[in-house]
Amino acid sequence: MTRTYYFLLLGGILACCTPMDMFHMESIDYSVTHWETADFSSLTKFDPMMENFETIFSLVLDKKLIFRVAAISYPTVCPDGEHVTASGLVYHPINKKSKGVIDFLPMAHLNRDGGTSEELYAAEGMLALLGYTVIVPDLIGSGASKDKIVPFLMVENTGRVAYDMRRAAAQYLWDEFRYELPQKTTILGYSLGGSAALAAQKYYEAHHPHSVKVKEVHAGGGAYDLPAAFAAYAQAGVSEYPAIPHTILAFDHYYKLELDFSYIFSGDLLENDNYRTWLHGEYDAAILKDLLGYNLHSYMHEDFFKPMDQQNDMLKKLHPLLPLNSVSEGWRPKAPIYLYHSKSDVIVPFANAEVALRKLRKAGANISLVSYPGDHYTVGYLYFIRSILRFL
After folding, report:
1. Which domain holds residue 289?
2. Are strands 66-77 and 133-137 parallel, antiparallel or unpaired?
3. pLDDT tens by residue, 197-235
C-alpha cells in the first residue's frame, strides 16, 4: 500500500469519529488516602437526619448493592495560580454496573476540619446508594488544602478544581475498577454547592466541551449573582451566615487588593483584627453565629449599606469582582439548569435566584426556578430528598 493510501484511510477514520468519540480527559496524578466498602445500610452515615426517612428508603434501596468510597488527593491550583494538593471523594458500585455519573459540588465548610474527604460519608454522596458513580470535590480550603483560605464564590477556580478532581477520579476508577468514566454527567449542589454547580458547568462547557458533556444541572440555594446578593444583604441588613465577610477576605487575599479593613468591617469583627482569626477556619458556622450575630450593621462598615456609587474606595475595589465571579454573567449555558430556592431564605436571599434566572434566560439558557416553603436548611433537606427520589 502506498503512503497516500494510509493517509486517506486515516482521514476516513477521523472523519467518521465525532469530537465526543475522540476527546478524553488527560491523565493526572492522584493518591488514595483512605477508603471503605459499604452497602445500603450506610444511609444514616451520610447524614444522621436520614434516620427519619430510613424506613421509606429501605423499601426502595437495592439491598444487594455494594459500593466503594475512596478519599483521593490530586494536584490543582489556587485562584492566584499557586500549586496545591486538593482532595475529594469518589463513590462507585463494585458489584453492579454504574447507572451513570454525578458531579455533586459540596456545601460550605467554614471549619477547616470539616471537608468532605475528612469523613468518607458526605451528604453529597448519598446517590451512591442508588448505584451511581458520584464525585465530590472538597474544593480549596477543605480536606487536603485546609491550610488555604477558602476562595468563596470564585467561579473560575471552583470550576478548575472540580475539573481536576474529575480527572483524578477518572484515573482512579480506571486503575481500580477498569471503569472508563463516561463523558456525560449530571451536576448537583446546594448552598455554596449550588453556586459551585453552575461554576463547574460554566468551566466544563467553556474549557472542556469535548471531554465532559453536561446533561443537566440541579442547583439549590446558591448565590449565583454576587451584585444582587450584596445588594439584597445590604437592604435586609441581616444574614444568618457570614458569607459577605468570607467572600471579601477571599477576594482580598487572592486578588491582592490590600484592603484597609477599617473601611470594610466594624464592631467586634474589626476590633483587635478579630477577622484574621474568626474567619480563617478555626470556627464553624454555629460559633460564628454566636460571635457575629445576624445583624450586618454590627460588623459591616456603614458604607456597605449605601448605594454602590456612594461607598468608600475600599468597598469600591470589590465592585468589578462581583460580576466577574457571578455565574449569571458572561456565558450562555448549553445544558438545562434547574434552580431550587426558599422564598424566605435569609442566608442566600431569594432575589438572588430571581436575578440569575432573568439574566441567564436572557442569555438563552434553558433554565427554571422552583420555590419552596421553609428556611435555607429545610429546603436543603428537601433538595437532597428530592434528588434521591429523582434518581431512583
Report:
1. 226-323
2. unpaired
3. 999 999 999 999 999 999 999 999 999 999 999 999 999
